């Protein structure tokens, strides 16, 4: 079950340097391209004639040509040519989806197209702002997106899963600073944790160029159904919070199917903006970290399938934020089922007080 | 669903230089061999004792010996030896199928054996005639045979699927010469197309050794359920039709299962008969062409399975012959279901007027 | 269906030099380790929190730590630590299984733990006796264990399956010496065969260092549900039976699932005890022989699944012992179903008269 009336990330903007991008979204195979007018188009990746994926054919100007019999379709899904005949069968159309480019992402609306209001796109402006520098990437995860939400809202796993990267191997330092969990506007869960005077994990001592004790804070944020941000702040204990190195880690999830997820991510920093080497070091570090999560998440998904059981089997304290987010998601699914026009305008996800003491 | 009371191709004759040939036909695993008397035998590929394929054992003289306990079976399916005992259990028999060698092929009858009349074998004499030269091969296709029938009866796909080989990249030249489609004797569909004064596709300019305009004609013929012939004629516009280079392309399909097909093919020409180099060039060219079809057909089959839908989803003009053949096939299946003794004597597939103006 | 109230082999003792062994037994994933006290522990390989296999985490002292959130479990299955909280949820326990080290094997009891009496462990003392020398190994077989029982109780297949190793290629020598089959104590089947004055198969002429005629005897023994021993005796015809080279081949089967089996084996000999080269030659020879069986058994399993049929389809004389063992197994399953406390104390499997004339 997926929330339908919401904007999902379909691609990074820069993927449209290719003729087209084909991707399964919410179990629907979609083909997307940027027309010569610079606007995006999204269609079912399916020729209505013999069910061939249009992505097995080719793009000709602003049309898609099927690779079997040469039928062509416009960005609006209209058939413009059936080789061998002049009349176009009225049933020869392809479904389209609203798609918009914003903040460096392509946002797609898989629900009722009459509700696709661009004002409902959440604010992710840091991703293409001159005041911030992004390190971006993509992971394909063979697990339901809720397992990723769980993972991202419960940062205590860092000690065990990421001890080589962002975890620090000292169990007490992270696991014993319980987060304060809050719910907001029936669509946001936040888990905020302060970790004063800790030994910096390898990743942070590298970026800070500092080996001594640091103050660190983390806020894990989930916007129903599947957008997540982790705010990460660190500074040496000798300095004050206003000087902190801050990162906004965008974890933008789009269900591919009930058992797989597109994971678009971007680590966005407010420091050392012009250092492209650092941008690349961070990108590689994050990619390795999420490789570690991928292993855990896919194993968990497989166990659930084999055993026919749900998680958590036994709830512990670190499940507080994940369970709250699951409840908001269930409510949203119910709301949408009861009222097919139900939409939610997302509030701002990162309040100003995140940036300083 | 398969038509049962009909002769299918089981193998090329020359495959029987091996001790035996094992192949799944109409979902039945069959083992076949040529006895020392020169006649063919076909049995279920299954030892009745412990269900081992007989093809996992070995052939000893004109008998098959199971590889587990050494039980032996004759070409007639009788058990001739059970090691360790002298009496033979009456249930220790293996089902046999009528199988006949003709025109260089092994023809098998999977239906009621009492109806297996050799006179019902269609005429494919060109395949072993001194007046014709064959280039033969085999493709295994993971698609239902009806998708191959569709493909072979609708040659408009050549422009898009085979633009590197037999299609010529000029959409108008093929797609805009609609074929004349006729039905005959409730078991044959023909789609006949004349293409006068066209630029020769690469394959034909190579065989004709001629770069100028040509006259070309094609007749796609389907005999229910799964034998197809494409008659291809070409000659330079300066010459008359009686001098044409003619090819009969036999596309002899046998269902392996509901989702896979044995595709025995042979391109038979009436020109440059003694040139074995040309025979090999044609064989390679045809094999590459059918590799292109294989990709399309298997993708279509997979799409049908994933989507749970039939083809064509929307019918266009090029579907006329395929749809007629599908209707004849459905009627034949119904006839056989209503009358288990129903058989059809196939008329001649290629009339004399195919050879000249 | 599996007999539950019985001791199965879970591992060789020497596998516990590793921190832990994870293995699916009777369809249950189990993790096992030897504690610092030297005793074995066996638990469900499953963290109750998020269903992760505990074998994806690590062992810390005598506890298992989950690799996702660091929860720890003792050898008794008690949760001893939940990072981030001091109270332990009462549901956070892991099921344990009785497990005992004996004769060089780890024996596990997957049934009612209150019935797990160590006296019910069958005698396999040769495996760690100074009077015998073992050559041991393990095969994973993708087939139900009853197909292995069948195979081991019917040694006539050696002629056809193992003609390169223990079979001798002379069909008459083995197949025509029918075994005497007896049943004992409702849980043992024996098939005893004497083969006087035969040409030695390659394996035996190698171990005996003798090319002339030999006397050979075999006793195939099955203890319900899945322990098998083959007693093999050979001596040159010129010598008497008391001098025979005797091997006890232990084939100790544990179902992994309905369609796969753990095959722990050990060839134990009473001759040339100190020759470690011979131990290794025998180990390699046996491994190759069982590779041949693996092919046959897995093909048979696959055929049964594809065809939806049971074996034997037709019974022949060599099936006498296998069919008797299948009947005892069915009776045992029925007994256990009717009386969940039903257990059987296994009698001695190899009587003294096996050793000499």
Can you give me a brief rundown of this structure?
Helices cover 21% and strands 31% of the residues of chain A. With 357 residues, chain A is an alpha+beta fold.
Description:
Three copies of one chain form a homotrimer. Chain A is an alpha+beta fold. The first copy, chain A, folds into two domains: 112 residues, Rieske Iron-sulfur Protein (3-layer Sandwich), CATH 2.102.10; 224 residues, Naphthalene 1,2-dioxygenase Alpha Subunit, Chain A, domain 1. Chain A contains six helices and 17 strands. In chain A, the strands form four sheets. In chain A, strands 11-17-16-15-14-13-12 form a seven-stranded antiparallel sheet, covered by helices on one side. A four-stranded antiparallel sheet of chain A has the order 5-6-7-8, with no helix packed on it. In chain A, a hairpin with a 2-residue loop joins strand 2 and strand 3. In chain A, helix 1 crosses helix 6. Chain A is globular and about 75 Å long. The two termini of chain A are 40 Å apart. The model of chain A has no long low-confidence stretch (mean pLDDT 93).
